[in-house]
Amino acid sequence: MDLLEHEGKRLFAEAGLPVLPSATAATSAEAREAARRLGLPCVVKAQVQAGGRGKAGGVRVCRTDDEVAAAADQILTMTIAGRSVGELLIEPAVDIARELYVAIAVSRAERTPVLIFSRHGGVDIEEIARDYAEAIVRRPLDPLLGPADYQVRDVLSAAAFDPRAAQAAGRSPAEQLAAVVRALWRLYRDRDATLVEVNPLALTASGEMVCLDSKVTIDDNALFRQGDLTSSRREAEAETRAREAGIAYVALDGEIGVLGNGAGLVMATMDQIAAAGGAAANFCDIGGGAGAATVKKALGLITSSPRVTALLVNVFGGITRCDEVARGLLEAFAETRLAVPVVVRLDGNVGAEGRAILAAGNVPGLTIAESAAQAVRMVVAAARREQTATVPAED
Amino acid sequence: MAILVDEQSRVLVQGVTGREGAFHTARMRATGTKVVAGVSPGKGSRDIDGLPVFDTVAEAVAETSADVSVLFVPARFARDAMFEAADAGIRLVVCVTEGIPVRDMAEVAAHLAAAGTTLIGPNCPGIISPGRCSAGIMPADVFKPGRVGIVSRSGTLTYEVVHELSKAGIGQSTAVGMGGDPIHGVGFVECLALFEADPETDAIVLIGEIGGDDEEQAARYVLDNVWKPVVSYVAGYSAPPGKRMGHAGAIVEGSAGTAAEKRGALQVAGIPVAASPPDVARILGTLFAGAATR
């Protein structure tokens, strides 16, 4: 789950990371009021889960409250990377002396968290990597211990602070940066993050270190112990319903509904549909050990899309029992009559029993295929027939 | 020989009294696997169809000399269960459970590595050496004993490919389902090394999917270290870009991980990439026919 900037900054503040005082606003009046309280000049920032916000014009520095209101009105009507802006964050503007980059993320290859630092921040990490690759410090962290002292020293030496730089409240930039790295680790660990990124981490002209942006991703698998964060999730409604039912569902552009078990099998099914000249209307993985109720919910999700003209159920049972899948299909079809032709391929764990149950159900419009390849051919042909049937004749 | 498990393996099941645990324990036993114990905290001192159940892994190991543990423990207790298995001296942990937090898996990976315990999974179908041992949830009746090793990121795709191999008369030495989580135990490279060294394996099938760069690493490894024939299949050409990793993630991994990129990397290493699951069997059949006529 990706957090918005202001949600991430709330976690930053809790973890002891330096953030500016700020306020959210959903209207220009609220933005004006927030700016009055926080002081001018201030920055008005779009709250969207997308990169490239600054380039799209979603971040404005304003000197008067009229400017704040105008910027707010404008940004609230924007769509950035396909997402409409519903909320703003207002922060006082600061005098930036230097911009740094610091993050902790998961490394699949090393099977550990990894600390990433660059003395060049403020632009996308892709650009930093391209232009200053040699200046990136990357250190795998012990998942049980976090950053070791020597790793923090590596970061401090890479930062190359001017020893005569200003000190804020008696703390040198290096001391502040060390505290940021340690607080970032606490946040990463205690909040079950898979990514915490501060870009830019700014050093102000008066010598203060402050996190000007936040990017936080929380591990979906750990939401059970991060209860206060779940209320802030925003997703397309279908995907939320799917997740609650333990189903992975993504809507696509094609016409053939796909239901399968296991992400790999579903993807392979989509690939074979594409190779046979069709296109999948969705990705839908009912996961391991799915019961009848899950199958029913998945079918409901898929067929709620008007673009679906045929449906392919491709199940190869390992942990999933084909008899359960068959019963789920029959229950679902008993409740809502089939609007589109359905091709079912069931094999593996009690596959013969599943096929027998399904065949005994005598569902009109349902075909049981012998193999995955045959099922794909049949469903693509069925979708074609449906399409030509629904196109009105020329004359 | 096979790799990691064979007829000598003594399997214990953690979470044996749960629905999935009980179901798959019965299936493993039905295939002739030496399942020697179950563990379920607070439910010990009983037996299930003659299988002794213990409260702790340490007791189970002391009583039965179990050396492989298969986990069906709920996600939030899985970390502790794997620590317990490693500390009790279990040689191989197979974690079937899905939905385990990444933080927990990073800690498990570190602890098990320090303990010298090998991990398969999590979120995986386990491992099978057909006719000898099944530690996990793979449907044994699809498999056929033979000399092709399989390592895969996807459970159901493995069954699909194996189904085709068995139909074509091509048996398997061992199949490993490594699981799809970002932090997992043995991967392509570890399994390629084990299969290359296994005198009972003649060829290797590698089944990948989009995301990460495991396939790219495997391709590089094969180039310098594997002399047995390798055939691959990759799923996800038509998959949506999906939830992209954060920017920092892109840097960490270095690759966007599309199916086309993976196919490219495998082909550069001289590894044939099959177009569909049946195509894997066709390519292997051609290889073996070629070897037989030489």
Report the principal-axis shape of chain A. Answer: elongated
Mean pLDDT of chain B: 91
The average pLDDT of chain A is 88
Helix-residue proportion of chain B: 25-40%
Percent of residues of chain B in beta strands? 15-25%
Low-confidence stretches of chain A: none
Number of domains of chain B: 2
- The count of DSSP E runs of length 2 or more, i.e. the number of strands of chain A, is 18
Q: Output the strand order for the largest sheet of chain B.
A: 3-4-2-1-5-6-7
Output the CATH homologous superfamily of the largest domain in chain A.
Answer: ATP-grasp fold, B domain
Tell me about the largest β-sheet of chain B.
7 strands, mixed
Q: Name the helix and strand elements of chain A from N-terminus to C-terminus, one letter apiece.
A: HEHEEHEEEEEHEHHEEEHEEHEHEHEHEH
Q: Quickly give the structural class of chain B.
A: alpha/beta
Architecture of the largest domain in chain B, CATH level 2?
Answer: 3-Layer(aba) Sandwich
Which key features would you list for this structure?
heterodimer, A: 395 residues, alpha+beta, D-amino Acid Aminotransferase, Chain A, domain 1, Dna Ligase, domain 1, Rossmann fold, 3 domains, six-stranded antiparallel sheet, 12 helices, B: 294 residues, alpha/beta, seven-stranded mixed sheet, 10 helices, 22% strand, globular
